[in-house]
Amino acid sequence: MILLKSVELREMHMPLVHPFETSFGRTTLRRIILLTARSADAVGYGECTASEDPLYGSETTETAWHILSDFAIPWLIGRTIESAADCAGILRPIRGNRMATATLETALWDLEARQKCVPLHRLIGGVREEIPCGVSIGIQASISDLLAKVRREVSDGYRRVKIKIKPGWEVEPIKEIRSEFPDLPLMADANSAFQLSDLPLFERLDEFGLMMIEQPLAHDDIVDHAKLQQRIRTPVCLDESISSADDARKAIELGSCRIINVKLGRVGGYFEALEINDYCSRNGVPLWCGGMLESGVGRAHNIALSTLSGFTLPGDVSASRRYYEEDTVRPPGAVTRGGTILVTQSPGIGYHLDWDRIERATVRKQEFGVS
To answer: For the chain, first and last CA: distance in Å?
Structure first.
């Protein structure tokens, strides 16, 4: 049983080590919401993955703060629930805003795991003690800069490389990487930058033996993706189009994709992610965990998610030092020379929060308690 007694929201400003550029913009600083949920006997942490601008999706850091402070938290604080799994049903009347509600939902799963003194990955039914890691490389100033980054990540042991693409930055970068790394597991992420009329381009990308092309068409589409997948050999992976297990079912039935990227924030938390895992496992569709430039708390949740049975491909779960000089957890996330992360066996997300770093990064805070 969980009686939520208090909640704290913080907004932190976390500068990136290097700017990260995709087809829809360039990020140099992350505005991250950290949520602390407390019961009488445990505490849990969640991180909001919404971006600063409504470009990846409709949510932003600011809208998430509003939904959490004015709706999600008041609906749950002071309320006794059987388990963290009940949170999703209580918050379901809130339409959309899944990144906001996932912030609270994931914190409650962490709280329940700590309450039961078990690692979070075991509470959710994870089956792995070590997860393979991939890396995501943003759009670079030149192909030579891109190749230098790929060399560095490969030498660090990452199992898969993903590069961001956009119109005018697709064939040549991929061709050059393939020339130097003919056997590298390589994928391209378009973040919805193309249209079905770009079919000749995608047919040309078939030449390079990519693992997948991620979200090539519109962010809310599954119909045109099905038409594209019928015409190309390369597997289409859906990201932005999949917000629920029902979305996954429809996309798979239509033949819109052969792979799905799952992000906890995008699907609203663990309850829906577990539904997606179960459905895709039954239907032979591989999953992997996507990234949103999370700090340590969000990355810890991604590690737990990646232990589920359906997550058979390397995800975007990489070392802290790739993004932040100082992370929010101790020890900072690290990748082995074999390109894996060892899953912690400590209760909950399994990491200690670095409160000195968090306090220095905090720009606003709001507390909620039972009156």
So the answer is: 20
Overall CATH class of domain 122-342: alpha beta
Whether this model's pTM surpasses 0.85: yes
Each residue of 332-342: pLDDT tens digit?
Answer: 778 888 889 99
Task: Provide CATH 3.20.20.120 ranges for the chain.
Answer: 122-342
| Residue of 5, 116, 166, 263 with catalytic role | 263
| Chain segment 70-127, per-residue pLDDT in tens | 999 999 999 999 999 999 999 999 999 999 999 999 999 999 999 999 999 999 999 9
- 2-117: CATH architecture: 2-Layer Sandwich (3.30)
**Token pair in block for residue 204:** 């040309």
Instruction: List the Cα angle 157/211/278 in 5-degree steps.
Output: 95
Q: Which of the residues 5, 164, 227, 365 is marked catalytic?
A: 164
Residue 342 parent element (H or E):
strand 340-342
User: Catalytic: 164?
Assistant: yes
d(CA 11, CA 270): 22
Strand partners of residue 61: none
**Distance set, CA 65 to CA 34, 47, 181, 331 (Å):** 10, 12, 43, 28
At 346, the amino acid letter reads S
